[in-house]
UniProtKB/TrEMBL annotation:
GO terms for molecular function: beta-fructofuranosidase activity. It catalyses: Hydrolysis of terminal non-reducing beta-D-fructofuranoside residues in beta-D-fructofuranosides. The keyword Hydrolase applies. Belongs to the glycosyl hydrolase 32 family. This is Sucrose-6-phosphate hydrolase. Residues 24-335 form the Glycosyl hydrolase family 32 N-terminal domain. One of its GO terms (cellular component) is cytoplasm.
């Protein structure tokens, strides 16, 4: 692991000015991906994530670890030591995604250990291992020895070698594990296992759609909101349909009907986000019983996946944490209330006159008094527009998109936009979080221009996170 330690020592050499985000979690060096195993122990939140310190100094395949931040208020963070290394024969090529379960003061963590063979393999039906491992901790920082729970031999024989990303939860005094999977017939699904002790697992069932919806489902997360059960997942290989499914892979949820353990069925897939960069969503419940979602502010296997910040020694970030709420069979995403602590200067504007301001790090809440066309210009050439006649909200970028061009979503009645702009990110919450649009964005121009519209706005300059490195 010496090369990982050496890469981390280069943190002081990383360009801390160009495009480093002010109020988003980023890797110290290298790259970041899926959030994992988030939990609250006492008054401290723990946020783990896929982390590859070597990603920006070599083009060779290198093993990822679990990075770790902790916080008590989502404003002040501490970068903790690496939580899990790829230091066993069962995870030597990467500590992949997983989840955690806090019970009786012990944090139980489950993850996929990746092993990749050298040779002439297709790495779908052969050439790799996807092992389920577990570790535990009393403080969320120090973990005990690894325990191998399952290998590919324990999965149904109809599966490819792609079975990963375990989610664990407890219900009716029984433990359940949900795994994302790829069927030999190239159909995405999740596998359900049960256990009485979190060590010995028995296969129960699979959940999938009647018609094939992508060839692989990653990062499964079965949750309950408003007494309704949902399966969050990231289907890969879904064909685009008009304004839906426009990214290389998708991130969203199905409502689960019936008993997920026996004969459950899935409703229509709903996208979480209609922007360019939102993937690998994972959730946890805090001590107030609130369901909080984290996601990777990036997109797997897209033409723009590798950001231009890689030349500065780092890339990728986590999206803002979001509180999930249920209403009318739909999941709303709301910025967690702790983010209000970042506000430090408030102005109110009547947008019936043309608006022009300069800022890169801000929150802007626009209340539309009537349904009307809308046009907003950000940075060098980013545009947010609403066509009232077509009920279409569109995000368009050119040079500042770095390969990202246009995304749209149908909104029948646009009444509110809540926009979070950071140095190199943009997150738009539409109609109180009914939909969102998230993206990375680049360029140093700080223009904010809005053509006159029948609306009012609250504008806040935002302070940066305080991170103890």
């Amino acid at each position: 692991m010496s090369n990982i330690h050496e890469a981390e020592q280069a943190f002081n050499q990383v360009n801390q000015e160009t495009y480093r985000l002010h109020y988003h979690l980023m890797p110290p060096v290298g790259s970041l991906a899926d959030p994992n195993g988030m939990c609250q122990i006492g008054d401290t939140y723990h946020i783990y994530y896929i982390y590859n310190p070597l990603a920006c100094i070599t083009d060779e395949r290198t093993a990822c670890v679990w990075g770790h931040y902790s916080t008590q208020d989502f404003v002040h963070f501490k970068r903790e030591k690496i939580a899990i290394y790829p230091d066993s024969q069962y995870d030597k090529d990467g500590v992949y995604s997983g989840s955690s379960l806090l019970e009786s003061g012990v944090l139980h963590v489950f993850y996929t250990g990746n092993v990749r063979y050298t040779g002439d393999y297709d790495y779908v039906t052969s050439g790799r291992e996807q092992n389920v491992l577990s570790v535990s901790s009393l403080d969320g920082i120090h973990f005990n020895h690894k325990q191998l729970l399952m290998t590919n031999k324990d999965f149904p024989h109809t599966m490819t070698k792609h079975v990963r990303d375990p989610q664990i939860f407890k219900e009716d005094n029984q433990y359940y594990m949900v795994l994302g999977a790829r069927h030999l017939e190239n159909k995405g699904l999740v596998l359900i296992y049960e256990s009485q002790d979190m060590t010995h697992w028995t296969y129960l069932n699979e959940l999938t759609t009647s018609n094939t919806f992508g060839y692989m489902w990653e990062c499964p997360d079965i949750i309950i909101l408003g007494k309704h059960r949902f399966l969050i997942a990231c289907p890969q290989g879904v064909e685009g349909v008009e304004y839906k499914y426009q990214n290389s892979h998708q991130c969203g949820y199905f409502e689960v009907h019936g008993d997920f353990r026996k004969n459950g069925t899935l409703g229509e897939f709903q996208q979480f986000d209609y922007g360019f960069d939102f993937y690998s969503a994972r959730t946890f419940i805090n001590q107030n019983g609130e369901r909080i979602l984290f996601a990777w502010l990036g997109m797997s296997e897209a033409s723009y996946t590798k950001n231009q910040t890689a030349q500065d020694g780092w890339e990728q970030a986590l999206a803002l944490p979001r509180l999930l709420k249920y209403k009318d069979h739909h999941i709303y995403q709301i910025p967690i209330p702790q983010l209000k602590s970042l506000r430090h200067h408030h102005e109110q504007f009547n947008l019936q006159q043309k608006f022009h301001k300069n800022s890169l790090c801000f929150e802007m809440i626009i209340h539309f008094l009537t349904s009307t066309d809308f046009h907003m210009h950000l940075r060098e050439d980013c545009y947010i527009s609403y066509n009232c006649q077509e009920s279409l909200l569109t995000l368009t970028m050119y040079q500042c998109g770095d390969g990202r061009e246009k995304r749209s979503v149908i909104i029948q009645d646009l009444y509110k936009l809540q926009i979070f702009s950071d140095i190199s990110s943009l997150e738009i919450f539409i109609n109180d979080g009914y939909y969102t649009m998230s993206t990375r964005i680049f360029g140093n121009c700080d223009d904010i221009i809005i053509n006159k519209v029948n609306a009012q706005a609250d504008f806040y300059e935002l302070l940066p996170y305080q991170i103890e490195w």
